[in-house]
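Model: You mentioned two targets. I'll fold them one after the other.
Researcher: Yes, keep them separate.
Model: Target one:
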Amino acid sequence: IQDEDPVAVSRSGDTDQGEALPRQVVQVGAFPNPFSTQLTVKVQTTLDALADVRLTDVSGRTVRAILSAAPITGRTIHYQEVDVTGLLPGQYFVVVKTADQQHAYPVIKIK
């Protein structure tokens, strides 16, 4: 099974004193894509973070809660397998939310 190219989202900024904040990069991937009965979600951050990860349908409704306030250690790749049997074929999104970011990674369910 080959990983899909992850999507990177970054955030950086300045404090009131003009000092640069550490740069947080979140990488999200899911494979196989398209998927049928099992989906593996990959999340990596450059800094330690708490992450909520869920699978949503196109209307934004959560169809599978994957991780809830899970600690993701910086520079460590976290893999989570998700049983998706029972979901109808179609477009879904792996949504990753940290304290300062949210990202949706599109995936497709086939028969």
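Model: Target two:
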Amino acid sequence: LRGLDEGSDTIGPLVTLSQLAVELELKRAHYDAALMRLDEIAATTARQDTWLAQRAEILEQVGHLDEARKAYEDALAALDTLPRYRRNTRASAALEAHVHAALDRLSMAIR
């Protein structure tokens, strides 16, 4: 992680390095640190949908179901703001389906 942080400090924030750092934080079960890194990525990118969905997955994993539901809903809202040509891609459709499935799963778990 230190090397990734040093690389980002040297060449500037790169999503690929930051995403790798998130994955390493998760492997180490440093969930708060992973969430903080996701927030940093989201602050530097125009699209929020992917990062909100990943945030929701982490929150769900650690049992913060209400927060996870909110983050999934925010991801859907972010998808809704995309221009049609971006929204109609396979990746966006897959993310939307994933988020809807997660919300269905959470609604059953929260009951």
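Researcher: Noted. Anything on target two?
Model: The CA atoms of residues 22 and 34 lie 5 Å apart.
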